[in-house]
Recover the amino acids of this structure.
């Protein structure tokens, strides 16, 4: 009941503000996806605002993607800060045309409410940031497609790859940046090379 009420309140607030995260936008029918598109997978995900979606709803704009978990105290906050730096440094021609996606490894603790609280704590704009959670199998499938390795330890923490991925508007991997605190310039250059959405 609490989850339903929270979802209702979150969605009501979004509708009132007429702001919807990328995962809640309507996508017009387009040409078939290529066999390299991550948007072909059939897995279903739940966003921090309660939308149940397939990844294909993100089609139409480039996505800067990372996998994380909300209770991480070291690498994930740095990854999120790296994403925010990319967002801050986007040239004028790309501002408002690139979205950011965070997908949680922690299928047990990262509930819709936890992810929404994380969005607020990190001040991630609802206009171009999506936070998703999924089943263990779906998270494992997506991580394999992105080339992200992760392993849960006995304390419930995760050791994982530190990887930021750029998907083009059709969900095809266009660029990957490995490591923490890398210069945003390479990622931005990769975004600039993509066809205009």
């Amino acid at each position: 009941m609490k989850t339903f009420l929270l979802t209702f309140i979150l969605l009501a607030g979004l509708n009132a503000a007429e702001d919807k995260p990328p995962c809640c936008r309507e996508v017009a029918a387009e040409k078939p996806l290529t066999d390299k598109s991550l948007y072909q997978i059939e897995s279903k995900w739940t966003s921090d605002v309660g939308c149940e979606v397939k990844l294909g709803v993100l089609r139409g704009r480039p996505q800067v993607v990372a996998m994380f978990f909300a209770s991480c105290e070291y690498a994930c906050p740095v990854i999120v800060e790296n994403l925010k730096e990319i967002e801050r440094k986007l040239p004028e021609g790309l501002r408002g045309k690139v979205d950011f996606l965070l997908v949680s490894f922690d299928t047990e603790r990262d509930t819709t409410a936890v992810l929404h609280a994380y969005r607020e704590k990190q001040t991630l704009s609802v206009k171009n940031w999506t936070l998703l959670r999924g089943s263990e199998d779906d998270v494992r499938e997506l991580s394999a497609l992105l080339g992200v390795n992760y392993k849960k330890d006995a304390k419930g923490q995760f050791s994982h790859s530190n990887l930021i991925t750029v998907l083009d508007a059709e969900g095809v991997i266009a660029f990957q940046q490995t490591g923490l605190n890398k210069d945003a310039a390479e990622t931005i250059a990769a975004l600039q090379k993509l066809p205009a959405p």
The chain is about 30% helix and 20% strand.
